[in-house]
Amino acid sequence: MRILIIGGGIAGTAAALALDKAGFGVTVHEAHPDSGADIGAFLTLASNGMLALAQFGAAEAVARRGFELTAMRLTGDTGAVVSTVPLGETGDPLRRFRCLRRAELCAALREVAVSRGIEIRQGERFVTAVEDADGVTAEFADGTTARGDLLLGADGIHSVVRPLTDPEAAAPRYAGQRVFYGYSTEAAPPHEPGRIEMLRGSSSAMGYTVSPGGETYWFARVSADELSEDEIAGTTPAQWRERLLPLLRPDATPAADIVEATDGRLMVTNASDLASVGRWRTPRMLLVGDAAHAASPATGQGASMALEDAVVLAKSLRDAPDTASALEQYEELRRPRVERNIVNSARLTPRRAPGRLERTLKNYRAKWRGRGGGPHARSDSAAEEQELARQLDWDTPLAADSPAPQGS
Ligand SMILES: Cc1cc2nc3c(=O)[nH]c(=O)nc-3n(C[C@H](O)[C@H](O)[C@H](O)COP(=O)(O)OP(=O)(O)OC[C@H]3O[C@@H](n4cnc5c(N)ncnc54)[C@H](O)[C@@H]3O)c2cc1C
């Protein structure tokens, strides 16, 4: 089977690696003419994302580019520490949370893909596709076409493939917050290696961590109206800094000093997400990653979800008797999990800054969760994690009653 993958970001390149491992022929068609080595946002890959990467042999390459995060400390606006909790699975170094730039993650995935001979075609902007009984033909902006048996829409939140699987799907919606982020080698905030600091401010939710090389990576989420594209394009980093600082100054945390010490490497974007997309698939097309289920960034799970998608899809196509049942099984397994992430992330993205009482309650709940969240929460999440580990484990068939896969 030949699979056309539209989008060479996280979901697309990961899917290419997993599908290649499962024995399928894949070609990635990426709109950007180069590999996009811009400054860009950074992200944290959680233990579930690292576990997914390990299934198709990309965990080491990603781990080399990022640095470990093993703990998270939450501080309130008064400067009082609310809680310090371990992050994810810390036993196996390859399962630890990693912090790296999105471009570095894509570069690591691409490096592994190229080393395996997977074709990645840059500068091919997908415009539409036509499917028939024998296959699907993708059309690109430069007039070229490509033919395959299945087409994956891995083209992100503004997916061009999505209207083909679901003409009724709503456009991405503003989630209610602006996300500022930046990098500074001048800031010197209190830190410990491997710890991410979350600062619950009076008007912002900020996070920062310091890389082993001494660079502070930070983000700040602020509830406010949506920014227009013109405003984003026409505002300089120094102007953004001046707009953000008054929101941070009242707090007894290092937030304002970090932003003050940040030079031109300061950016802002709108936090957006997708309402549930009713139809992820047609007989020969399927959406994966943000194209199907973009969440606002608050849970920090979008990239990890895309990596999980890759493994579950490859296993579904490998194990199911035909493509139709594979795609059905894939959606059945993935939809509840990724849609829960959208809802959880939206809950953490309030459209207005919480008042002091709400913040106190939130901090209290966070502390409680950090201690295990009560017996119910613990057993539910343990069962879920066990099921996820089963779904991701490459050698375990997806359906509990299937025979073990050959030659893996
Ligand atoms: C500010 C911010 C912070 C975030 N932080 C985190 C975090 O800490 N942890 C985390 O896990 N996630 C985080 N996320 C979410 C994460 O970045 C996304 O979930 C992830 O990038 C989704 O990967 P994707 O491959 O589906 O989409 P994208 O990364 O958007 O990739 C889509 C690719 O498709 C290409 N493309 C688009 N249109 C076309 C076309 N017509 N033809 C061909 N190619 C096309 C694009 O050029 C791109 O390469 C964050 C997101 C934001 C905005």
UniProtKB/TrEMBL annotation:
Transmembrane segments: none annotated. GO terms for molecular function: FAD binding; monooxygenase activity. Keywords: Monooxygenase, Oxidoreductase. InterPro entries: FAD-bd (IPR002938), FAD-dep_Monooxygenase_BioMet (IPR050493), FAD/NAD-bd_sf (IPR036188). The keyword Transmembrane helix does not apply. Residues 367-408 are annotated as: Disordered. Residues 377-393 have a biased composition (Basic and acidic residues). The keyword Oxidoreductase applies. Pfam families: FAD_binding_3. Residues 3-342 form the FAD-binding domain. This is Monooxygenase.
